[in-house]
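Standup notes
- DV: blocked on the single-chain target, sequence here:
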Amino acid sequence: MRRFAARLVLDGSSLGHCYPLRPISHLRNLQPTAEAAADIRGVRPDFRVHYLRFARSRSMNNETALVTGSSSGIGMYLAHEFARNGHPVVLVAPVESELREVAQQLRQFDGGTEPIVIAKDLEQPNAAQEIFDELQQRGVTIDILVNNAGHGQRGKYHEISLEQDLSMVRLNIEAVLRLTKLFLPPMLARARGRILNTASVAGFEPGPLLAVYHATKAFVLSLSESLATELEDTGITVTALCPGPTDTDFFPKAGMTETRAMQHAAAPQDVAKTGYKAVMDGERVVVAGAVNKVMVSARRILTEEAQAKQNQKLYEELPEEKQKYERGDMETKAAQKD
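- DV (later): unblocked, structure below
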């Protein structure tokens, strides 16, 4: 970087202009704002864009991310990605001891700040407001809101209790609405921010045997795309992350460990990497995994009935001899690569 900066000054001199080299320590604190543009008047004009890009990259990594459902699965690995890239992280999930374990994992990343742990059950109507109020009292600004918490329940609609369905609605939909309603206005006031909503490929199509879960993810996907358009030119981006079956605790909790879907599950680490890149790039919708992209594209040629039948087959149980993979296999394999 020093050699590059020095070359800029030498090139400027050869053109009859001499601009003083600003120290790198100054650039580390530079923000990509109108004030920043005025603050680099000592830099050769045609190279100011390089300084602003450098400053913006530093600023992006200082953005604080709040990640719900971060005690395991995709949420935990999203927290890893943010911490690995230098972001301060706020961890939210119901069980404090599990969050403390994740916070310990995040401390291994160089340059990371101490994670904030907030144990709250987002199915409770006051939880979102309590999280917001606590962070306000601490003076913590949330730059990236990651609505990741969610769960499902396999079974025929008439066989699943109303309370189980409402539990999915409260966590998968209501918590997203409440947190976004609270954290979006401060982002608008600052004219910058990011929202990452974990939707699903399930949001694109009907899902017999997982009907309410599919419906909740259709809501999240539709909401995300709508907000992305509403918030254009505000400095705020909204991204919908759409994974397919993923090797997380979702499977045992939803009663799906013996289904065909388990045999096609991706590693949560890979999904998290896709999600992190997408939200930092400001993408609207990202489908994780090549196979899932093909499945989503197939919607253009398959009828709704064919899609429903295909998904029903995916959620049916397999004979034990055909169950090649178990919960944790893909996650462990990915961890060994890292």
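- Follow-up: The CA atoms of residues 17 and 98 lie 59 Å apart.
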